[in-house]
Write a structure and sequence with these properties.
Layout: H1 3-16, H2 22-35, E1 63-69, H3 83-87, H4 95-98, H5 105-108, E2 122-125, E3 130-133, E4 146-153, H6 159-168, H7 178-186, E5 196-201, E6 225-227, H8 245-266, H9 269-291, H10 299-305, H11 314-326, E7 331-336, H12 345-369, E8 376-381, E9 385-390, E10 401-404, E11 408-413, E12 421-423, E13 425-426, E14 433-435, E15 438-439, H13 440-450, E16 460-462, E17 465-467
Parallel strand pairs: 1-7, 1-8, 4-12, 4-15, 5-6, 5-7
Antiparallel strand pairs: 2-3, 4-11, 8-11, 9-10, 13-14, 16-17
Helix pairs in contact: 1-8, 8-9, 11-12
Length: 482
């Protein structure tokens, strides 16, 4: 029997055999926290509050902040310049480069696939000599903190399956996302906040489905909790008119007592998840308002991020991500929309970079100066890359790029990753990988490794078999690690 099943069954039997309602539930929760408190941070067998019980080996990171650029930024215009594309702009992409590979229906009907070089200037930055576009002037400040992976590759060629694949390791909806796996396996370090929090910004572009941060077949309490940009930070966290904290507590106690009776009779884990969610929501009424009050930050810090309290922005979310990290949240996902530039790329890409470059850079700098970067792993990237050829006509100030899953760039910082390092190479057209590929499954395996988790051993039995984030694939890429 697997460890997670032992945990669930033991807890269920405890509740089923108990006759003391809420007192039994509270005791079970207390026992779980007590049993998870042993061990030291450097011990390979460190106990954790999640279902794993113990880490598989000593972790380099305690948490992840994932900066998801929804819509897929163009690696060719930001991180992987190709002089050959510039020289061949307006000429057909050679068949020897494409090799008959599948492309989307948005460009498969074009008479020609015309190469298009980047209109932006590049320069090498840091001791690592990373090529960074003029659109990301702030990122140049942290080039030597970063690990740049130029050879990420994925399976899907369209947005929704690609985002789903990047989140869950599978193109079909219904599986847990990475943040949910970590919330389940490792738990969080703050009982008053969720282990997995989601922040959104930007408008237009691809729709953000709530299942992109869903728990899938895991119990619902492991899904991401979305914090909003306006009004109540979390839906319904405030008491309605006429309800005070005392009456809310009385109502919650009565509801939980009924739920506990139902749980003891039915043994349905969904009821247990509901009890836990209600209790967390009550605790968040006290913790969330203080957490989300950015006016507590110094003016110097606000200026570093370009953040303005009360004005929704990616910069505000980056600052809030730092506050969540220092309060023990395990997985923090920031989603910024509208990077899908099938047309109007020069102006559209410039706008997105202006919205995000300062905040993302400030997050790394701020984590470092507060001593949090060593055990916080920051990731930046989209669901796939963009093509070397143009979608539609090429004009002096306007063109677009289609989806390209075969190679794209992400950067990471902190969390024991190799600093000032460029991994992999692509061909002169930026179309195929020529050295050191990194598949999405490999990335997932590597990220879990940094948190002390063997990706093959964090599993959950569902529909008669064990599932894991990396499905049946994935290798830890040792060259990415410090």
């Amino acid at each position: 029997m697997h460890q997670h099943n032992d945990f669930s069954l033991q807890r269920r039997r405890f509740l089923q055999n108990s006759t003391t309602g809420m007192g039994a539930w509270a005791l079970a929760s207390l026992l779980n926290k007590t049993n998870a408190s042993g061990g030291s941070a450097g011990d390979a067998n460190t106990a954790v509050a999640g279902a794993m019980g113990q880490l598989h080996f000593a972790p380099k990171a305690k948490r992840i902040i994932y900066l998801f650029m929804s819509g897929a930024p163009s690696q060719l215009d930001l991180f992987d310049p190709k002089p050959t594309l510039t020289e061949m702009t307006g000429k057909d992409l050679p068949d020897s480069v494409r090799k008959g590979q599948r492309i989307t229906t948005m460009t498969s009907g074009q008479k020609n696939l015309l190469c298009v070089g980047s209109p932006f200037k590049f320069a090498k930055h840091g001791n690592v000599g990373m090529d960074i576009s003029e659109l990301l002037p702030n990122l140049t400040r942290i080039a030597d903190e970063c690990t740049f992976v130029r050879t990420l590759n994925t399976d899907p060629i369209n947005h929704d399956p690609a985002v789903t694949f990047f989140a869950t390791g599978n193109q079909q909806p219904g599986r847990p996302v990475m943040g949910a796996w970590l919330a389940y396996g490792l738990g969080g370090d703050n009982a008053d906040l969720p282990a997995f929090v989601v922040l959104t910004s930007g408008g237009g572009g691809q729709t953000l489905q709530t299942r992109y941060w869903g728990s899938g077949f895991l119990p619902s309490q492991y899904g991401g909790v979305q914090f909003r940009n306006a009004g109540d930070p979390v839906l319904f966290v405030s008491n309605p008119p006429g309800v005070n904290a005392q009456s809310r507590r009385q109502l919650l106690d009565a509801t939980n007592e009924l739920n506990s009776l139902a749980l003891s009779n039915l043994g349905d884990p969904a009821i247990s998840a509901q009890i836990e969610n209600y209790e967390l929501a009550f605790r968040m009424q006290s913790s969330v308002p203080e957490l989300t009050d950015l006016s507590q930050e110094s003016q110097e810090t606000l200026d570093l991020y370009g953040a303005t309290p009360g004005k929704p922005s990616f910069a505000n979310n980056c600052l809030l991500a730092r506050r969540l990290a220092e309060r023990g949240v395990r997985f923090i996902q920031l989603c910024h929309r509208d990077w899908d530039h099938h047309g109007g790329l020069p102006s559209g890409l410039a706008t997105k970079c202006k919205e995000t470059d300062q905040g993302a850079t400030a997050l790394v700098l701020d984590l470092k100066r507060r001593g949090l970067l060593d055990d916080t792993l920051v990731i930046w990237g989209g669901e796939f890359g963009r093509t070397a050829y143009s979608q539609g006509a090429i004009k002096p100030d306007n063109f677009g790029r289609d989806h390209h899953p075969r190679c794209f760039t992400m950067w990471m910082a902190g969390g024991g990753m190799r600093q000032g390092y460029i991994h992999g190479e692509t061909d002169e057209f930026g179309y195929n990988i020529t050295r050191d590929p990194v598949h999405v499954h490999d990335l997932h395996a590597t990220l879990l490794h940094q948190l002390g988790v063997d990706h093959k051993r964090l599993t959950y039995r569902h529909e008669g078999r064990d599932y894991r984030l990396t499905d049946v694939s994935g290798n830890v890429i040792q060259d990415l690690l410090s």
